[in-house]
Amino acid sequence: MKKKIGILGSGQVAQALCKGFLKYGSEVMLGTRDITKLNNFTDSAKVDSFDTTAKWADTIVLACKGTAAEEVLKLAGHENLRGKTIIDATNPISDTPPENGVLRYFTDVNESLMEKLQKVVPEGNFVKCFSCVGNAFMVDPKFSGGKPTMFICGNDEEAKDEVKDILDKFGWEFEDMGKVEAARAIEPLCILWCIPGFLNNQWMHAFKLLKS
């Protein structure tokens, strides 16, 4: 998997995916507003601005807070995103606290965050991925029940094929749920995934689609 991967974000999700891409042979650059956030995180990855990262990369990973996603894409520069696969790991989590373990979203059931982002950057090929599991399991997940399922969606078939190859390398089964509108169903899986954690401090799980 010899690609230049530009990760827009500097938090735990960005760092976990960075380690995964490095492990499987890609070059990685992390884009951030504040380079000092990553002073203690080197792992052979470059660190630079959002704009420089997006321009350098072959493939983009959007791994920032959902509330900041539109601004991050703006800072990355829409021209730098043109024609590129953008792996969207964000969720529309609001800044208000969970209610009885249930996260609050700033979107409604009839529009996902990825749909909003695709409209903001129509020249980019968004693929929803890595949004329904904790960062500890994004790369090489190990469960007694076998490989978990990662649900993806997006409008561009070549971009989805690229993401499927990444998921296969990272040890996932995958289920292609169709076009961008399917993100309305995929993004809320984060809410479901987090409930056992908030209520019972149980975070060691993932989803699997069973077929007959």
Topology overview:
Layout: E1 4-8, H1 12-23, E2 27-31, E3 46-48, H2 50-56, E4 59-62, H3 69-76, H4 78-81, E5 85-88, H5 113-120, E6 125-128, E7 149-152, H6 157-169, E8 173-176, H7 183-186, H8 189-200
Helix pairs in contact: 2-3
Task: Give a description of the structure.
The protein has one domain: NAD(P)-binding Rossmann-like Domain (Rossmann fold), CATH 3.40.50. It has 8 helices and 8 strands; from the N terminus they run βαββαβααβαββαβαα. Helices cover 32% and strands 16% of the residues. It is α/β, with parallel strands linked by helices.
Summarize the structure.
The protein is built from 8 helices and 8 strands, in the order βαββαβααβαββαβαα.
Q: Order of strands side by side in the largest beta sheet?
A: 3-2-1-4-5-6
What is the approximate shape? Answer: globular
Main sheet attributes: strand count, strand direction, barrel closure: 6 strands, parallel
What is the CATH H-level superfamily? NAD(P)-binding Rossmann-like Domain
CATH architecture: 3-Layer(aba) Sandwich
The structural class is alpha/beta
The sequence of SSEs as H and E is: EHEEHEHHEHEEHEHH
Return Rg in Å: 16 Å
Low-confidence stretches: none
Task: Measure the end-to-end span.
Answer: 33 Å
Q: Give the total of domains.
A: 1
What fraction of the residues are assigned to beta strands by DSSP? 15-25%
